[in-house]
Structure formats: structure tokens, C-alpha cells
Amino acid sequence: MSLEPALEYVRDRIQTRPTLALVLGSGLGSLVEAASGTTVLPTTDIPGYPTSTVVGHAGKLVFGRLSGRDVVFLQGRLHRYEGHDLEKTTFPIRLMAAMGVRRLLLTNAAGGVNPGFPPGTLMWITSHINWSFETPTLPETARTPVYDRAWTREAIGVAEHLGIQTRQGTYAWTRGPQYETPAEVRALAALGADAVGMSTVPEALVANSLGMRVLGLSTITNAAAGLGEEPLNHEEVLETGQRVQQELQRLVMGVVA
Ligand code: HPA
User: Fold this and answer.
1) Tens-place pLDDT, residues 68-79
2) Which of 77, 221, 233, 243 maximizes ligand 1 atoms within 8 Å of its Cβ, making it the mutation to test the pocket?
3) Which CATH number belongs to the domain containing residue 244 in this structure?
4) Which stretches of the chain are assigned E, i.e. beta strand?
């Protein structure tokens, strides 16, 4: 799918040239409220942009200023489990790269696999496990590490400075849409995963291969299947997102500044 029509559509409507993009995970979309002077482009209006189907995942590109910088938010990312292939799933990333974005902050909601990471934990992604065994077509071989070490170190420093506790860990990508079974969660724990979720990895791989710097931040919204008291549900994911949003907002604003 050519990016040209989408690129032209955006350029005709946006005066700024953001070099930093933030992808907002489910329940974390309210981060855009911290931005000023926003222009919203519903993704359904953008030519060639794949349509999203998940409740609570309104597809919007929001351009604005955050902590004194021009940024673009992607609210309502695309997921592989919605039936898009990985080329479509990563369309927004390729579009943002074509727009001139050089740094990508990927946020997500994830299940905690590491028992030391209870709901509410903020975790920098230092590495991932691709448990879907599917890879997007990459324009270049991905560089390693995928998650920018220097940027992550800086972000940890920002968190410390703000008095916000963060952790670091490995994110496992499962394709979904079903949550993992307890047996799968035990397997993921044995493989070294700290968190599990259904996004981020394809975006990180594509962004990295396009030469963008990538920072990954998971909000642990629930204990992964079999580790918590209650059965998993999407409401808990959204509720925890709500609960941590202020802290997350402060942290992200600090990192952007
Ligand atoms: N598993 C997979 N994806 C998720 C989870 C989970 O437990 N929580 C939020 N996204």
C-alpha cells in the first residue's frame, strides 16, 4: 500500500513537522489531554489507512505540542489480531517515518508475567520475545538493540528525577486476541518474559529498521492469566490504565521534555 496519498492528506492539513511520535496503548489514550494546540485527524479520513475495530481504540492522529515540542500521537493503534497483516498493522509507523518522525515512544497495556511487577507497574521495554513468530517485511535488517539503550537510560533518569518508580523488562508479544492460558504464561515466564501483550513488537521492528529511535513503555494493567485472583478481563486493563494515567502522563511529559 502506497503511503503517498496518506502523506499528502496529512501534509495538506498540518503545518508542524513533528520529529517525535507517541503511540498510546489501550486505556492510555488520555495522554493526549496533556498536549496543547491539537489538531485531530480521524484515521478513517486518511486515504489508504487501515480501519481499526477494537472498542476503546478510536483511531486518531493527534498533532500538538507537548512539553514544548511538536509531537504526533497515535491514539488507537492497529493490531495484528484485528485481521490486518503486519504491513497494514505497521502502516501508521511507516506513515510517521515518511512524515519525518525520528523518535518513537511506544506505550502499551500489558499483563504482568514477573510476579514482582504487579498491576500499576511502569516497565521500560529493554527487549522482546516475538511469540507470534511472524515478522513484518522490513526495508532493512533490523538493527540491534531494537529499543534504544541511551534513550531508555535517559528516561530512567527522568523517572528517578520525578520520583516515579519504573522497572525494566522483557515484553513478549502474543498475537491474540485471546488472552494467554495459564500454561502459556508459565512458558513465557520460563523463557524470561516479564510482561505479555498483543502489540508493539511489529511497530518497534519496523521503526527500528527505518532508522527511528525506539523507546518502549509498558503499563502492567493486570496479572497475566493464572497469576491473579480474578479471571482476566478488558475492563481491568482499562481501569488500571485510568488509575496510573496521571503518573504516566507526568513521566511521558518529562521524557518528551
Ligand atoms: N495479556 C495480553 N495482552 C494484554 C494483557 C494480558 O494479560 N493485559 C493487557 N494486554
Assistant:
1) 999 999 998 988
2) 221
3) 3.40.50.1580
4) 20-24, 36-42, 60-66, 69-75, 103-112, 122-130, 167-173, 195-197, 213-223
